[in-house]
Design a protein that fits this description.
about 600 residues; Glutamine Phosphoribosylpyrophosphate, subunit 1, domain 1; Rossmann fold; 3 domains; 8-stranded antiparallel β-sheet; 6-stranded antiparallel β-sheet; about 35% helix; globular; binds fructose -6-phosphate
């Protein structure tokens, strides 16, 4: 949420920052800005996307070998030129970019106001800039120390980068609750809120931890705690490559990522699903099986799409491993008296590994003695680093704001975990295990079959492009898929959509059904199939327009539906992995028809690092 990039070295910082901001734009795109130092300090800020900043930079011919940039997702203060980052103090000597929220900004603002500070905009970040300025101008400390002292006064979260007009030899960075890394080049260094702007130049990175700051020059970097204790940091090697963060001929990242799923699901299972031996091997969980098996309950905490994956996980854990599971919105869990203790295990699920609420739930669970496991996509992310053990999804970078391949990879990991634990607890029979291993192994080719011919989905998308509402119905394993289908449609096409367990419909939502209402029914082969047919009859009786996502054997639902999108048959507990794919495509095609910005939908940002 918001993106930061910085550069110090011998190349043109403005070009590197612009390119970096374009790569980071999926994290926020309300406004953009940068500060570049070359004798003077040029500060450019503009409402809108990075392309506006690019135009402005070209026009003003801004160059220099030191600078910082920002792409914003507004929290405090509407998106406009003034509220765009970087922010400066009254003397305009330094520029600051910030991700996160300064929670005590109001108190600080009033205090600074009494000392004569005037604020141009409404952001919390501008208050921090003035606080640094106040400390620097009014006390006998150097600029770096002024930054450090200011940070000890702020409450909330931040990832910041600062450059100073009269110190053109350094970038100061600091982190608390908002990710930041330093990319190490040859006589040049990069700063970024995630690895995507850096990968083109170097694979060597240092991750800052909370309450750490660094001073980066052309000669090197020095990291210390906010209490001024020097630190030696481990240098990590990035696993991603440039190709993974480019569109590769697809019109949108989202479509590319949907089409990547046969590969990402296969990558997720590689070396873990041992088909010849009917075995699952999840190295990241070695040593924790006993505690997981004996847990009083597993609490899955996540947000959004990852929460939907968690719901599928609940069904899988209960069925295959006989482990009781509760699925929690991380944002609710963190403020509840959840009575979690050392007898429980928390499993957090997060694509980015940076979602603020999920991280807070994790920390709360740990504090109360629970073991915390993680399913994350981004290697080295905060959540991945703070869990006791976990499994990476290996889906590769997900750039499209609407999550797709991360969901199928998360469900794949959850299925493997449940199977592994079922065997460990000796509650999963040889026969069922063998069947599920075979079935899981087929998933990549089944998803490929769906992607091979998308004509029917495109046709349905065309017919319903301008529908104002959609209902999605599923039962059992596919109830979470109904929720996910509805979320995808809302996010990228701005059509109001609701997902429901099919049988719940008659407890209220059935009132919405008339001859205009498209109702997407997910009817994969399922032990609740007969019940589903009755639910579909109920929709039909009220003239709802039924779009069935139906596996080959589900002719009954097919007969009732106005449109049927066929998916291949698979064991019902794995059916979410195939059933979700047409729903991703349906929302994609509808959004494209409606000329929506698929990869950067309004008001959204990838990776929600604020509460
Ligand atoms: C939906 C979507 C969001 C995320 C949610 C959690 O398409 O992308 O709902 O799933 O913000 O993000 P992670 O998984 O990064 O914790």
């Amino acid at each position: 949420m918001c993106g930061i990039v910085g550069y110090i070295g011998h190349r043109d910082a403005a070009e590197i920052i612009l390119k970096g901001l374009q790569r980071l734009e999926y994290r926020g795109y309300d406004s953009a800005g940068m500060a570049v130092i070359n004798g003077q300090m040029d500060v450019l800020k503009v409402k809108g996307k990075v392309k506006e900043l690019l135009k402005m930079t070209r026009k003003k011919k801004v160059h220099g070998s030191l600078g910082i940039g920002h792409t914003r997702w507004a929290t405090h203060g509407e998106p406009n030129d003034v509220n765009a980052h970087p922010h400066m103090g009254a003397y305009r000597k330094f520029a600051l970019v910030h991700n996160g929220i300064i929670e005590n900004y109001d108190v600080l603002r009033q205090d600074l106001g009494q000392k004569g500070h005037h604020f141009a905009g409404d952001t919390d970040t501008e208050v921090l800039a003035h606080l640094i300025e106040e400390i620097h101008e009014m006390s006998d400390v150097d600029f770096t120390e002024a930054v450090r002292l200011a940070l000890t006064q702020v409450e909330g979260t931040y990832g910041i980068a600062i450059v100073h007009k009269y110190h053109p030899d350094r970038i100061i960075v600091a982190r608390k609750g908002s990710p930041l890394l330093i990319g190490i080049g040859d006589g040049e260094y990069f700063v970024a809120s995630d690895a995507s702007p850096v990968i083109e130049f170097t694979k060597k990175v240092v991750y800052l931890e909370d309450d750490e700051m660094a001073v980066i020059s052309r000669e090197g970097y020095e990291v210390s705690t906010l209490k001024n204790v020097p630190l030696t940091k481990e240098v990590h090697e990035l696993a991603m490559n440039l190709e993974q963060i480019e569109k590769g001929g697809f019109p949108h990242f989202m479509l590319k990522e949907i089409f990547e799923q046969p590969d990402t699901i296969a990558d997720c299972m590689r070396g873990r699903l041992i088909v010849d031996e009917n075995r699952i091997q999840l190295g990241g969980l070695t040593g924790v099986e006993k505690r997981l098996a004996s847990a009083r309950r597993v609490i899955i905490a996540a947000c959004g799409t990852s929460w939907h994956a968690g719901l599928v996980g609940e069904y899988l854990f209960e069925y295959l491993a006989h482990i009781p599971v509760e699925v929690e919105y991380a944002s609710e869990f963190r403020y509840r008296e959840t009575l979690i203790n050392e007898q429980d295990v928390m499993l957090v699920i997060s694509q980015s590994g940076e979602t603020a609420d999920t991280l807070a739930a994790l920390r709360q669970a740990r504090k109360r003695g629970a073991m915390v496991l993680g399913i994350c996509n981004v290697v080295g992310s905060t959540i991945a680093r703070e869990t006791d053990a976990g499994v990476y999804t290996h889906a590769g970078p997900e750039i499209g704001v609407a999550s797709t391949k991360a969901f199928t990879a998360q469900v794949t990991v959850l299925a493997m975990m449940a199977m592994m634990m079922g065997r460990y607890k000796k509650v999963l029979s040889d026969e069922l295990m063998a069947e599920l291993v075979r079935e899981l192994n087929r998933v990549p080719s089944l998803v490929k079959m769906i992607l091979r011919d998308t004509k029917k989905i495109e046709e349905v998308a065309r017919l319903f492009t301008y529908a104002p509402n959609f209902l999605y119905l599923g039962r059992s394993y596919n109830f979470p898929v109904a929720l996910e289908g509805a979320l995808k449609l809302k996010e990228i096409s701005y059509i109001h959509a609701e997902g429901y367990p099919a049988a719940e419909m008659k407890h209220g939502p059935i009132a919405l059904i008339d001859e205009h209402m498209p109702v997407v029914v997910i009817a994969a082969t399922d032990h609740t199939n007969d019940k589903m047919i009755s639910n579909v009859e109920e929709v039909k009786a009220r003239k709802g327009r039924i779009i069935a996502i139906s596996s080959n054997g589900q002719s009954e639902v097919g007969k009732l539906a106005e449109f049927t999108i066929t998916i291949p048959e698979i064991h019902d507990c794995l059916s979410p992995l195939v059933a979700v794919v047409p729903l991703q495509l349906l929302s994609y095609y509808i959004a494209v028809n409606r000329k929506c910005d698929v990869d950067q939908p309004r008001n959204l940002a990838k990776s929600v690092t604020v509460e």
